[in-house]
Amino acid sequence: MSCPAERRLRKELLELLTNPMPGIYIDEEKVAKNINEWIVTIEGAEKTIYEGETFQLQFSFNEKYPFDSPTVLFIGKIPVHSHIYSNGHICLSILTDDWTPALSVGAVCLSIRSMLSSATKKERPPDDMIYTRTCSKNPKKTKWFFHDDTV
Amino acid sequence: MSSSQTTTVNDPHLDNTTTTNNDTLPNNNSQEPSTSTDSSQYRSSTQYSFKPPPENSKTSTKPDLDDNEEEKRDDSMYVCNICLDIAKESVITMCGHLFCWPCLNCWLETKPQRQLCPVCKAAISKDKVVPLYGRNNEKQQDPRSKKSPPRPQAQRTEPDNSQNYQGFQSFGDAGFHLSFGIGAFPFVFFGSSFNFNDIRQRNGQNGSQFEEDQFLSKVFLWVAIIFFCWLILA
Questions:
Q1: Is Thylakoid tagged as a keyword (chain A) (predicted)?
Q2: Does residue A61 sit within a domain?
Q3: ipTM above 0.90, yes or no
Q4: Which stretches of B4-124 are assigned E, i.e. beta strand?
Q5: Does any CB of chain B come closer than 8 Å to the CB of residue A94?
Q6: pLDDT in tens, B103-122
Q7: A24: domain range?
């Protein structure tokens, strides 16, 4: 029998493929090769400043998933947003401190999509330059300070 | 085939308490043993995907499919919020969210300093989850249960047999007598009779204290009577 993490990821995958969420697409080929690395494409929602744009998210799961949060990064074209650094790191509490095992890939995608949707202007975080130069490659190693509760 | 027969013969209890899954195929069960093997595997495994019935029972294909879909929907109510399987060794939090005990325990151990319900983030703790006991609970043994500590015990409070009696119990013995010495007359009589019964139950343990208590009881009773006589006369 596969390990619990893999088992749960397969269930999530099946659920997302049978009941797709609007604007969220999964790269099935990539996932089929390695269940612990997902590439998810999200579309900017209609009537928002990201309408018509698509972005790619990379999910990496470790064997402790779902008790440990996945590592989530934007890859390729990074959306310009006050909580997304130019290296793809996302400042979102549910990806670190507020993660719970009841969350899922779908829930994270939905949160990120709604975070994009609630933005009113395209700008980088104020500390983008410093952060991208000094941060670790793994966003989970960053000690995040969450100060914007409106998102 | 042979395994299914032995199951039916050797374990009648299991057969009596089969899930609806097996009940939907009562005719197939007697006619084709292979079908019953299928359904027993189906029952024991945690998969709940639809399995097509055998081809030669085409007349019953449609109702079977409906039953299975309905069952699938029913099952989804009992899915653990962590592993997304049907909850095994199920426990429910005070906020009403269902989990496998091994799953929830693992989560609580991951963040011992910040124990929150994974679904609604309500404060939870090991002592405040309630295990769910189904009819055939003991039979479903989860292999992970060996690794994780046993589920917390259910809490069961004894019902109150008599409200009066419990009220008296809350007083200490000395306080009991004193309060009735001052109290109204009918209550004195009432109280001391209760007290008498109570002491007689404990008689075997310490006889000397019983006598002393009874003596005191009588003294207070007489004091109360005299007090009342004085009240009435004066």
A1: no
A2: yes
A3: no
A4: 90-92, 98-100
A5: no
A6: 898 898 888 888 899 999 99
A7: 4-138
